[in-house]
Give the backbone structure.
Amino acid sequence: MEQGARDELISWLAEAIRSITTVHPLRVAIDGPPAAGKTMLADELAVVLRAQDRDVIRATIDDFLFPRAQRCRRGQYSAEGCYFDAHDHSALCRVLLDPVGPGGDRRFQHAVYDGDTDIPSSPPAPRTHRPAGRLGVARGLRVVMALAPMRLCGCRGRGRAPVAGRCRVPAGCGRRR
């Protein structure tokens, strides 16, 4: 993808996100296959949103891993292990998505596990986002996450996380050549 087209895509996504108003922080997930450019797209989108004076929590599913022994119990290169055993979806919902979602107290953690050291993250005191104030409701917090293909199930027992809008980006748009 040419840089001009990529910039247009990121601007379009930022405008789409900006146009959504909620009484709680907006949660944005970027999903796609490995090496599709999810992390790069999420990083670039977060920069644009911050430049528009938006508060952004930039989180990644890879900060919600299970310990290596649990992730690799089906084998280090097991596709099933990678899909079913790698990420702690319950912790993701409990400490990040639910607290910033409807009815949440805005006290969140953006990580629970350090995959490089294979130890739980020493959680700082949970961070708090003010639900009102300088940002107001229409300009509230955005949580931008790059996700591996996964299912976000069970957050507060509501099944799949609600989707305010979807955008299909052609394969390869996230990659820089």
